[in-house]
Amino acid sequence: MEEMIGSGGTAPLSSYTEAVDWINGLIPFGIRPGLERIEVLMEKLGNPHRKLKFIHVAGTNGKGSTCAFLTSVLLKSGYSVGTFTSPYITKFTNRFQYNGMDIPEETLAELAEKLRPLVEEIAGTELGSPTMFEVATALAILYYAERCYPDVVVWETGLGGRLDVTNIVTPVVSVITNVGHDHTDVLGDTLEKIAGEKAGIIKPGVPVVSCVSQPEVIAVLKAKAAACRSTLYLAGEDFSYDLTGIEDGVQRFNFKGPFRSLDVGIGMKGEHQLSNAAGAMMTLEVLRQYMAFMLEDEDVLEGFKNTFWAGRLEEVSRSPRIVLDGAHNPEGAESLAKSLPQFYKYGKLNLLMGMLANKHHESYFKHILPIVDTLILTEPDFRKKMDAEELQAIAERLRDKYAKENLEIIVERNWGKALQLLQSITSEKDLAVVSGTLYLISDVRSTLLRQPDSEKGW
Question: Best label site of 153, 192, 208, 349, fewest CB within 10 Å?
Answer without folding.
Answer: 192
